[in-house]
């Protein structure tokens, strides 16, 4: 019995299991962390983050081996043709694993997470990471929906009560509802696609949608009372009887409805990320490391899914959906820009502006050529590190401060290195050279100009001005403080200097290196971006 | 008499519902759910509205699966139902934990801290007829 089970397991691991191994490793480590949590004491509190880092490392090494197999024998398809392992999956999975490692490092010394018995937090991070990897790997609607929901449920817990260390806040409820509504609309879009094609595999759906123009013409002809109409009716009755139930206009309108619903669902999910911040009862923002997780890899996963989905399923109707995407991008850019201007706290600005950053990525999707895909992957990769760096500074500052909303002011006096780093990250997010943010924007605008979307590029550049102002305002506050109001207050105590722990220093070092190196010498990074699309 | 016979004959005929009927039902559920989720402030009603949209998805999938005589659609509908149940469970757990001190399931503005309910307000609410 045991040998039979082992034999079955061995067969699975040599077949479909090998494709799922990076995700399975993450899940195994998550379960291990949960089990370990029962007998961990306060003294052993570093076991859980260490295991989370080890899980990421193991999964990363398996990804590297899969990369060799993909190079050798092309894309690997398995699990009943529902999952694919290709360069795209490997690139984005590597991003997710890096993000898990960065968030774990940032959380190690975070007061609310570093207590003993907080393994649930790290386990959730790993489980959400596995869901993201499945989301990128899936080529079947059922698996896509499962992965989206698994990711959503993990992020509900993480957003409402990170690490289960405090009671879930009612302020997390808008995030949850916006995300749940987005999922429901996405599912409706998926059901329409299934109805149009009779298949759940996105390759088969794409093939069916390509044929739909001809089918619509045939149905329209079959409804005529002439002789060819009768012949066509008989032909349809024998070959495609289900088509007789559909009106040709319905057949033409349904794909548009599906795209609109999917994009609306994605908009609600992106919008939800701006509501993600856990808050104290006083209403102050908390710079929790989990904010990075929800704003970084979760958003990147959804964007990567949207990119693969649109490019694969709706490849032939790109001119139609690119208009929807352009509208969505400008809505996000304008909403994000205005919202960031209204924010006073640095975290609030980052939160609101992250919506506009998603708009920048979607702008590149309008171009949908080789340059645009390079721009998107480069932008997402570098954005993760820039955002991680900026949030790492805020997390460290908040840990040493009483009022999280204003303690960035005059950061230079408390820790000049951190102030300098924050300024570099803000300049990069604002899109000024010689940083990665500037080169990312250049790639996006170049792709737009290449595809004769000059007016879009100019409009995006103008719309991005409030965003740049919001970022630069934080940089100025970090260097000079709020101004005369603070200096004139003689009763104000001088804030204590900020000390930097080793994990935070590692995170900040990696992030500032990528932010500057990808701007000064972008060639290796663009090569990686090319790799993701098999170029 | 002939009219009665006609009605009886009509009632004896099997009611044929085409895919369009199912699509209309599904679109109606979608619209009701979407408007409810956006406009209502009570969180339970919002939750029900989202569930209505997911029910519309299930109706769509079941209808198309029957049209194509395909089991994949039925499987998809089954998954949607199961996920719907799991999601409800998680959302209700979070809502219950989050709103226990407030004793009120009215949505709050994300920019504002949750309103603290005074004892008098809670007492007044409990006296309202159910």
Helix content of chain B: over 70%
Weakly predicted, low-confidence segments of chain B = 110-115, 117-130
Strand order of the largest sheet of chain A: 1-2
Q: Give the oligomeric state.
A: heterodimer
Query: How many helices of chain A?
Result: 23
| Helix and strand sequence of chain B | HHHHH
Average pLDDT, all residues of chain B: 74
Could you give a short account of the major beta sheet of chain B?
none
Low-confidence stretches of chain A: 278-284, 484-488
- Share of helical residues of chain A: over 70%
Distance between the termini of chain B: 52 Å
What's the story with the biggest beta sheet of chain A?
2 strands, antiparallel
C-alpha Rg of chain B (nearest Å): 22 Å
Largest interface: A-B, 47 and 50 residues
How would the global form of chain B be characterised?
A: elongated
What structural class do helix, strand and pairing data of chain A support?
Answer: mainly alpha
Strand pairing plus helix content of chain B: what structural class?
A: mainly alpha
**Estimated radius of gyration of chain A:** 25 Å
Identify the overall geometry of chain A.
globular
Order of helices and strands of chain A: HHHEEHHHHHHHHHHHHHHHHHHHH
From the N-terminal CA to the C-terminal CA of chain A, the straight-line distance is: 48 Å
Primary descriptors:
heterodimer; A: 535 residues; mainly alpha; two-stranded antiparallel sheet; 75% helix; globular; B: 130 residues; 73% helix; elongated; disordered C terminus
